[in-house]
């Protein structure tokens, strides 16, 4: 059984920063792609950032230059450093990991709320 647990969400003022973490546990040999998604009320879940096993990262346009994704393979952890936060970043953030080279064996975390408000 594979389990992903996110942490680090909370309430932050506009312009502030947060760091999200997601730790994987269970029967894991190797993690391929790690990523962060978000879902705001009334909107579809969208990709925020992803990082491949080789360290290549990809970002949604609105977060480029503000968010940084990183991974620690030994700790089975993915991070999302979020700076210059805006009210429109408010959403539930979910981590996602794939355990196979074709990205077909997919696991999700339970989500962590991020609220940007003054």
Secondary structure topology:
Elements: E1 3-7, E2 10-12, E3 18-25, E4 34-39, E5 46-51, E6 57-59, E7 67-72, E8 77-82, E9 91-98, E10 106-108, E11 112-116
Parallel strand pairs: 2-11
Antiparallel strand pairs: 1-3, 3-8, 4-5, 4-9, 5-6, 7-8, 9-10, 9-11
Give the uncertain stretches in residue-range form: none
Sheet of most strands: 7 strands, mixed
Radius of gyration: 14 Å
Instruction: Please report the total strand number as a whole number.
Output: 11
Subunit arrangement of the protein: single chain
Sheet-strand content, in percent, reads: over 45%
- Approximate shape: globular
Attribute tags:
mainly beta, four-stranded antiparallel β-sheet, about 120 residues, seven-stranded mixed β-sheet
Give a nutshell description of this structure.
The protein has strands at residues 3-7, 10-12, 18-25, 34-39, 46-51, 57-59, 67-72, 77-82, 91-98, 106-108, 112-116. The chain is mostly beta strands and 118 residues long.
Q: Overview of this structure, please?
A:
Strand 7 and strand 8 (77-82) form a beta hairpin. The model has no long low-confidence stretch (mean pLDDT 96). 0% of the residues lie in helices and 50% in strands. The termini are far apart. It contains no helices and 11 strands. Strands 2, 4, 5, 6, 9, 10 and 11 form a 7-stranded mixed β-sheet that branches. It has a 4-stranded antiparallel β-sheet with strand order 1-3-8-7, with no helix packed on it. The chain is an all-beta fold and 118 residues long.
